[in-house]
Amino acid sequence: DGHFVPSLTFGPQLVASLKKKTSLPLDVHLMVENPRSFIPLFHEAGADWISIHLEASAHLHKDITLIKEFNRKAGLALNPATPIHLLNEIIKELDYVLIMTVNPGWGGQEIIESCHAKISHLKNWIRGQKLDIPIEVDGGVKLENMEDLINDGVDIFVVGSAIFNEKKPIDAIIKMKQLAEKYSSS
């Protein structure tokens, strides 16, 4: 929206166009203020997974409930400095948690190192509650740090610059996919 983060990226029109071309699930991360006004637009466009920022929602339970009423997977995103304990009241309502490993808004950043401990702590907390909630990360993901992130407890990766800045993006995708498959089969 240009307010929660300064940059603008993809809107519901692109999601609708992609939905016509793929049967793969579309994961939409709303980095916007007042996410409730955007949730219906992305539902109608065909998003399968919708995450909102804890920091941007005035009525978190209502926003998560709205996503679920549309039969979409509901996720909650946390910025790097946002503490995990703020999930206490909502964790059981979530289908996944998205940890921002960079300050949102711009591609090509390096992972904030303290996020490794945050991810491990979150994974242990989820397991301790006997919940089955995957952890997704966004920001600074590249082949060189994926193994550490997997060991931290990451289940889903959002990858941008590490693919699109390569001369042969397909080669980067293949290598990342091979690494992920190595761990998913073990």
TrEMBL record:
Protein name: Ribulose-phosphate 3-epimerase
Lineage: unclassified sequences, metagenomes, ecological metagenomes
CDD domains: RPE
Key words, A-Z: Isomerase, Metal-binding
Metal-binding among keywords: yes
InterPro entries associated with the record: Aldolase_TIM, Ribul_P_3_epim-like, RibuloseP-bd_barrel
Species, as recorded: marine sediment metagenome
GO molecular-function terms, A-Z: metal ion binding; racemase and epimerase activity, acting on carbohydrates and derivatives
Pfam family, one: Ribul_P_3_epim
GO-annotated biological processes: carbohydrate metabolic process
Isomerase as UniProt keyword: yes
